[in-house]
Amino acid sequence: METLESELAAARDLDVAALADAIESIGFECTRCGGCCTGYAPDEPGGAPAGAGVDETGGDVKSEADDDTGGCNGGDGGDVDREPHTATVFPDEVRRVAEAAEREFGEAYDWRDVARPMPFGLDADAEGDPVGETFEWALATDDCGDCTFYEESDGRGACTVHDARPLICRTYPFSVALEGTSQPMGEAVDEAGVVRAHECEGLGRDITRQDAEELAAALKERAVRELEEAIGVRDGYDPGASDRADGDVVVFDSEGPKEADGTPVDGD
Ligand code: SF4
């Protein structure tokens, strides 16, 4: 079992040119299908492709609460439930996305507008509200379970905070085979060297060397950041934080324990 520190050292040693070679050999071009930005049906490996919200039985893909939403991306109500999109976002990325959204939409974005406690590991109380401790933030989702920053028109998806989007978005559908780093959306469907590729309709398409190198650099940055974050969470874990918190959910990130709205839990 490797330690997080040894994996972090390995991540810092990753050769960007070799990563770019691997990405080039696998091939990738974003088709703007929105699959990695949207909620997904339980039997789908990823999100619902833009404009493809109709399931094989003819029913439209619907969210947990879309009956009065006027329709979701990729569908407008029907009989197939969607799981909400979950993408990890680091605390500094939450602030950067909030700033980008404020510039884009001309209104204030607070923490909760950008991120929510990652639901994995949380329990539900008698009313079904989440309770417990979790160790990541996820991008906020809308009533359809799609990323709140995803927009779609004429079957083509777009990120409204594109230049500030988190590393997980900049590097999808790739990951690196290091323990302690994320492996998004199920098993790898292709691999080259230490690079793994996950379900995505854009795989196998030609990619320019420049784009491959940019993606490779972001992939390395993400691996390093994920491991730094994991080490920060491990070292900063405070078992008394949940007792001191005002809310029922505490998120431990590398900056310390936070309430669900991103405010720090007060110390002893
Ligand atoms: S931030 Fe942008 S790229 Fe990332 S999931 Fe949301 S819409 Fe997609």
Q: Which ligands accompany this protein?
A: iron/sulfur cluster
Query: Low-confidence runs (pLDDT<50, min 5 residues)?
Result: 51-70, 75-79
N-to-C series of helices and strands: HHEHHEEEEEEHEEEHHEE
Strand order of the largest sheet: 3-4-11-12
User: Counting H and I runs of at least 4 residues, what is the number of helices?
Assistant: 7
Q: Structurally, how many domains make up the residues?
A: 1
Proportion in β-strands: 15-25%
Name the overall outline. Answer: globular
Largest sheet: 4 strands, mixed
Q: What is the first-to-last residue Cα distance? A: 34 Å
Number of strands: 12
Fraction of residues in helix: 25-40%
Radius of gyration: 19 Å
How does the helix and strand content classify structurally? alpha+beta
Average pLDDT number: 86
